[in-house]
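*** Protein under study ***
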Amino acid sequence: MKVIKEKCVGCGACSEICPMEAITVDEVATIDNEKCMGCGACVSECPNEAIIRD
């Protein structure tokens, strides 16, 4: 997964739904690809389409 930083507003919806706790949010979301299992929950949950599969 990849965060498009220009679209991310830091709302935290992605980190709340991530079952692997692979996403942290400061000003924008950051995905720890070592923890990410690629389920796509964050992609579906993001209201700004700021996360894409890479």
Observations:
- The mean pLDDT is 97.
- Strands lie at 2-3, 23-25, 29-31, 51-52.
- The longest helix spans residues 13-17.
